[in-house]
Design a protein that fits this description.
By secondary structure, the chain is of the alpha/beta class. The chain has 2 domains: about 200 residues, 3-Layer(aba) Sandwich (Rossmann fold), CATH 3.40.50; about 260 residues, no CATH class. The protein contains 16 helices and 10 strands. The strands form 3 sheets. Strands 2-3-1-4-5-6 form a 6-stranded mixed β-sheet, sandwiched between helices. A two-stranded antiparallel ribbon has the order 7-9. It has a two-stranded parallel ribbon with strand order 8-10. The chain starts with 6 loop residues before the first strand and ends with a helix.
């Protein structure tokens, strides 16, 4: 015999944020699944939303239409019952006998008559009027487990909030505050745990569900760490190449054009790698309305053209000096020269390459963007010469990439799924890497150095994974 699924009906007046609460609690930012709108009366019938792990339904939340005529409905129920306090039997008669004037009230009472608990959502910024008191009374008559939720807007405390709490405390088993448009993972988890305090029948099932939610969150963090490893390894090991014909070596304008085209190709490829990383992180955290870019096809990635990027993210000068001493030097733009007796034109090629990349960076205005030309241009033997461009020579480059990813991760976690505005996944004002403990910086720097050589140190990856996991946890704490 199957055990009934714990079910909670989300009820309240129209436009109090019922749908937004469910959307945030269940991480659904898709209007096709949960419509969140400031237009009153968007929810006109009951919509079940299931929390499923594997193939097992663990909890069910029912989005109900709001009360539309609570005072009149309360009087009608009292008339049916007569003297004394109405109960489930009277409410069932009301649902069966009431006319079309109480369609919303009948619809929202049906799941309660079937055994659902109650999650009553109110906006404490609204004045506490008689119609709200009538709603509370009707819900109290059901005798079902009842949790009242003060759905604050922008965490603002309304002038009547204490009055709300007093009244709700007399009619509900528990009263909690929530902000459906800003609640983070911890607030969502606390709300789920609050259900344990009102629901005894399904206590074990709810505990198991909470454990599954916590386990899933931990798995997401691990998936995000793996995504960062893939991103950093790919970005730091990125190389693009072009073939220079003999005539390209001899004509300065052709050399310069080739070098500039190659540098642009490099940064476009880098943007593609970044886009894949951010898209995967958004997928892990179930975001559709938080976007990596307005136009994914023209995604530009972390703004390496901006001097501000290099000043607010990455390590400080002193930290870079220490890291260089520990690791034995930083990697630069890999430019290797094998002249094969064809040294003519090599110096000019280097100058053109440096000029092309500097042009991409707005005339080389970025601080400390040292473009080392000792390892990424390969002049081989034969008719064509291979020109290979790798990562910028600035030793802060890996740290800037990591900070850019971590600040966007922080932004993802701070975005509640109850919001319905489209927003860009931008970074933050400050990064994280400067506050890393020295041991973490040392491990990451050694790994970065190997990645910059396009030969990632696999033996270091377990330590790198742990370091990135800790970094993501710190970013999550900072998002609160």
């Amino acid at each position: 015999m199957s055990v009934p699924v714990p079910t909670f009906a989300v009820v309240g007046r129209v436009n109090m944020g019922k749908s937004a609460v469910i959307a945030t609690l269940l991480e659904i930012d898709d209007n096709e699944l949960i419509r969140v709108s400031p237009t009153p009366g968007e929810t006109t019938r009951c919509h079940p939303h299931r929390v499923v792990f594997g193939e097992r339904e663990c909890v069910r939340f029912i989005d109900t239409p709001g009360f539309s005529r609570p005072i009149e409905a309360m009087r009608a129920i009292q008339t049916i019952h007569g003297e004394g306090t109405p109960g489930l039997e009277t409410l069932a008669k009301f649902v069966a006998e009431a006319d079309g004037d109480f369609v919303d009230e009948k619809n929202l009472l049906e799941p309660l008559l079937a055994g659902a608990g109650i999650l009553y959502v109110v906006d404490p910024a609204k004045p506490l009027r008689d119609d709200f008191l009538a709603e509370m009374e009707i819900l109290r008559w059901t005798g079902r487990p009842r949790l009242a939720l003060l759905n604050r807007r922008e965490n603002a405390i309304g002038p009547d909030e204490e009055s709300w709490k007093t009244r709700l405390g007399g009619a509900f088993n528990l009263v909690r505050t929530f902000d459906a448009h800003h609640a983070r993972y911890e607030e969502r988890l606390r709300l789920l745990k609050a259900l344990l305090d009102i629901e005894e029948t399904h206590h074990a099932q709810l505990q198991d569900t909470i454990r599954l939610v916590e386990d899933e969150w931990h798995r997401r963090r691990e998936e995000a760490a793996e995504t960062l490893i893939t991103f950093l390894e790919s970005a730091l090991g990125l190389r693009v190449s072009a073939t220079l014909e003999e005539r390209d070596l001899l004509v300065p304008s052709r050399r310069e054009k080739k070098a500039e085209e190659l540098s642009k190709r490099y940064f476009l490829k880098l943007a593609e790698i970044e886009r894949a990383c951010f898209s995967e992180l958004l997928k892990i955290h179930r975001h559709h309305l938080l976007q990596a870019d307005h136009n994914p096809e023209a995604f530009q990635g972390i703004d390496l053209e901006s001097a501000e990027t290099w000043t607010k993210w990455g390590l400080g000068r002193g930290q870079l000096a220490v890291i260089s001493a520990v690791v034995g030097g930083s990697a630069g733009l890999a430019v290797d020269v094998a002249t094969g007796g064809l040294s003519h034109g090599a110096g000019t090629i280097f100058g053109a390459l440096g000029g092309g990349i500097a042009a991409w960076f707005k005339g080389g205005s970025l601080p400390d963007l040292r473009l080392s030309l000792t390892g990424g241009v390969k002049l081989g033997t034969g008719e064509g010469k291979s020109l290979v461009v790798g990562p910028p020579g600035n030793p802060n480059f890996p740290w800037v990439l990591l900070d850019g990813a971590l600040t966007r991760y922080r932004r993802m976690l701070s975005r509640a799924h109850g919001r319905r505005d489209v927003e860009l996944l931008d970074g933050g004002e400050t990064g994280f890497t400067r506050a890393f403990p020295p041991e973490r910086r040392a491990v990451l720097s050694k790994w970065f150095t190997s990645c910059l050589k396009a030969a990632p140190n696999r033996a270091l990856e377990p330590e790198v994974f742990d370091a990135l996991l800790e970094s993501l946890e710190e970013a999550a704490e900072d998002s609160k």
